[in-house]
Amino acid sequence: MAYESADVVIVGSGMGGGTLAWGLAQRGISTLVLERGDFLPREPENWSPEAVFAERRYKPDEKWLDEQGREFSPGVHYVVGGNSKVYGASLPRFRERDFVETVYPGAISPAWPFSYADIEPYYCDAEALYKVHGKTGEDPSEPWRSREYPYPALAHEPYISATIDRLREFGVHPNSTAMGIDLSPGGSCIRCQTCDGFPCRLGAKSDSETCALGPALAGGNVRLLTGARITRVELEQGRVVALHGTRGGEPLEVRGGSFVLSGGAVNSVALLLGSTSEEAPEGIANSSGLVGRNYMVHNNTHIAAIDPRRINDVVFQKTVAVNDWYNDLGDGYPGGTIQLIGKVQGSMMKTHATRVPRKILDTMAARSVEWVVMAEDTPSPLNRVTVNRDGRIVIAWKRTNYERHEALLGAARRMLKSAGYTAVFEQRFDISMNSHMCGTAVAGTDPAKSVLDPWCRSHDVPNLFIVDSSFFPSSAAQNPALTIAAQALRVAAETDWNKGV
Ligand SMILES: Cc1cc2nc3c(=O)[nH]c(=O)nc-3n(C[C@H](O)[C@H](O)[C@H](O)COP(=O)(O)OP(=O)(O)OC[C@H]3O[C@@H](n4cnc5c(N)ncnc54)[C@H](O)[C@@H]3O)c2cc1C
Questions:
Q1: Which residue, by CA, sits nearest to atom 4 of ligand 1?
Q2: 398 contacts 309 by C-beta, under 8 angstroms
Q3: Where are the domains of the chain?
Q4: Which pLDDT tens digit goes with each residue over 433-476?
Q5: Tell me, what's the pLDDT at 500?
Q6: Closest-lying ligand 1 atom to the alpha carbon of residue 89
Q7: 66-94 pLDDT, tens per residue?
């Protein structure tokens, strides 16, 4: 048996855990990060579409179950840096409206227990930490900011500039994507084609290992144990006293003052639900019965829009978003965001369109431009994470608020058709495409209606925190990572860590 201890123990080194470790390092707090995975190697396969997408080289073999007991491969990456190692580094802020209640025709998106103004200073800090490039004054939905973007927006390549002109003719206001990459003078980014969805071989993507955990480890107060998988949380008289798991085949026990779960919106709550005891028969921190409930993932569809007359020779495609319909789709209700994604290659299309010959896919890819259409899903207690008798993760999930997504897709189709894209292919996200998972341990002020307080501390267990996307009361309709990072910095700064020690 191996024993470890620290004042603050963090489980998981992704966007939440890695950023929190950085925040604690700034305050000189002795911190131990436990990560079940290892460092993702820098190797030629990082940039191989076949290795990354077809062979799934950086994904675990792990399968989760749906409600009917069918297996699926979830969108998780068990490595130092978590999902941020492969993410698309699109780092927009949520809008002011996302923090207050929104009433949709058939659903409600609840208010957050803090306002945009409360988190705004930490958005600034997170943008600085994650080297966000962007531009103000273009986006009709952009929220106010107290500090300019730390880096200028990425330049558009000629094909994208021409597309922007066509979209403007249609009447929308394309804006620069807020991107976290190291593209400043002397930076290591080479603006390649293998960014979104790929690990960066050069360490030029703003992932949590590169920007937060690495610098935190260099400071001396933070330690990292890789290959340390936590499987049980031990509760005694209302406080967490230890974490139990394995490392290198050996049992591991970790003691500490405060314990932070940052394993991602499914794994963090699975740990709590799986740690039942006489003291916590329904799982730890679950007096509300809400641990695992309100699982959200966004209503997303990937679009490949083809203009047969134009060859898309772009290298770095992800530089534009259209947010004209974010707050109002023209019917008084919010729509969502439409964003360019990384350039999709024929070999990547093959992983979904398995029956279509590669030659046809290459021809299509040469003439297509790819977008994601992202609308808000809303929390439902029936959409939930549970752990079955064999200890396996089960996800009950049905789409919510999907009419808004259909309406936004309709607007996207009209916009693209008017810009000359005669064919539009769509791939709707299914249960396995859950990379934006959130909401399973909702933050709030009422312990009967929420799991965490507004600073991610458990209402039930004072030395237990969950700092990852689990705390989201709503999913908004923007990419989640910057908000996870900003909240991690807020929790680091506004918590009296000595209280838990
Ligand atoms: C392909 C892809 C593209 C994406 N693109 C974007 C984007 O452009 N913009 C954006 O905002 N978001 C994007 N996302 C989503 C973003 O990456 C996630 O929202 C974010 O990383 C979630 O942070 P987290 O801290 O909740 O969890 P994660 O980053 O997933 O971190 C969880 C960590 O905990 C570890 N862990 C889990 N369980 C245990 C355990 N029991 N013991 C020890 N360690 C454990 C895991 O190994 C992992 O390292 C993308 C995701 C994917 C997969």
A1: 87
A2: no
A3: 2-500
A4: 999 999 999 999 999 999 999 999 999 999 999 999 999 999 99
A5: 53
A6: 8
A7: 999 999 999 999 999 999 999 999 999 99
Query: Phi and psi of 64, rounded to 5°?
Result: -105, 170
Q: What pTM did the predictor assign?
A: 0.98
Q: Which two tokens stand for residue 95?
A: 């809008």
Asked if 235 and 241 touch (Cβ cutoff 8 Å), the reply is yes
CA torsion through residues 402, 406, 408, 409, sign:
positive
Give residue 486's pLDDT band: very low, low, confident or very high (50, 70, 90).
Answer: very high
pLDDT tens sequence across 344-367: 988 888 887 888 889 999 999 999
Atom 49 of ligand 1: nearest residue by CA position: 82
Ligand 1 pocket, CB under 6 A: 11-17, 34-37, 75, 78, 82-84, 86-91, 197, 229-230, 262-265, 267, 271, 435-436, 468-469, 479-481, 484
Using only C-alpha atoms, the chain has a radius of gyration, in whole angstroms, of: 22
What pLDDT does residue 348 have? Answer: 86
Q: Which CATH architecture has domain 2-500?
A: 3-Layer(bba) Sandwich (3.50)
Measured between alpha carbons, how far is residue 62 from residues 58, 77, 83, 158 in Å? 12, 10, 15, 42
Reading the block at residue 23, the tokens are 């925040």
Report how far Cα 93 is from the mean position of its chain's Cα atoms. Answer: 13
